[in-house]
Amino acid sequence: MIAAEEIIVNNNVLITKGTRLTESIIKKLKNVYLENDLQVYERDPEQENILKEGKKELEQAQITVKKLCNHLENIFFKIKLEGKTDMNEVRNFSKKVMEELISPRTMIKNIVIEGNGQDSIYKHSVNVIVLSSLLGKWLGFAEDRLNLLAYSAILHDFGKTKIDKKIISKSSRLTTEEREELRKHPVIAYNLIKDISYLSNSVKYGVLMHHERIDGSGYPLGLKDNKIHEFAKIIAIADTFDYINSNKNSDDPFKALEYIRKDCLGKLDYNYSKLFVEHVANYFFGENVLLNNGKVGKIVHIDINNLSRPLILCDENFIDLKKENELKIEGFLAD
């Protein structure tokens, strides 16, 4: 039989719609979690295609992101060529991104699995635009405010196009001189838009301040806490998440969320970070993961205080990774 709807207990999705229910799974669910009957329906041949459809959706998301990257690259090229920003193009690009966020699960999954592919300008920027806009939505921003946030996220890394490509693409540690050169990119982008009289200052400040940190350790101004604009605080979280998530030296798919939750205390806005982690983690429920023993499982519960050790449904058994120290998740599966 197949679950006819999500099984949710205490706001956690234990079983996603379409999951095959064996007698063993039903028994464990009823004994451990449930008091009510389960809603099920008999196997439909179409259900056999659920994973294939999920894979197709992810492939479509990859195509969409590639198109957005190409569009953004064209916008940046035109800015460099003309020395000014066409805000109509920025607005139109923002609308395209917003259209993809009506059902954001696949876009988030694509970001988590694919990262930025070492494209630290265009794909990275698209990921940051998506994540910043989603965080703005989760914060309850009105449409006009959300649009301004998106404009700021779109332009936040334009300055990198003016930096030596050897520095941008360098995989080894930057020298002091190279690091100082790279740190100029927020100011470069800000100088491009600062004199656009009709453009909200919130957009300009988001661009200028997205590398500032709550404790004053950021750049270019070394601002602290409430001196940093809210757009910059939001973009900083999205920017940091994509940077850490795209670091292929890590085999822990939860590392970026853990980094936002723990390692950035005192650097990134606490309330914004907490909301971001909670919402992104919600999209991990029901996802298939590969364990280091070669088996595939499904995430059915996540402890927000121990993100990388969730409860896994594997071979009709529940595995609590908090109690299985030798097991760990190696990565999310695309299908």
TrEMBL record:
Cleaved signal peptide residues: none
Name used for this protein in its record: HD-GYP domain-containing protein
High-level lineage: Bacteria, Bacillati, Bacillota, Clostridia, Eubacteriales
InterPro entries linked to this entry: HD/PDEase_dom (IPR003607), HD_GYP_dom (IPR037522)
Organism: Clostridium mobile
Coiled coil: none
Pfam families: HD_5
Annotated HD-GYP domain residues: 99-292
CDD domains: HDc (cd00077)
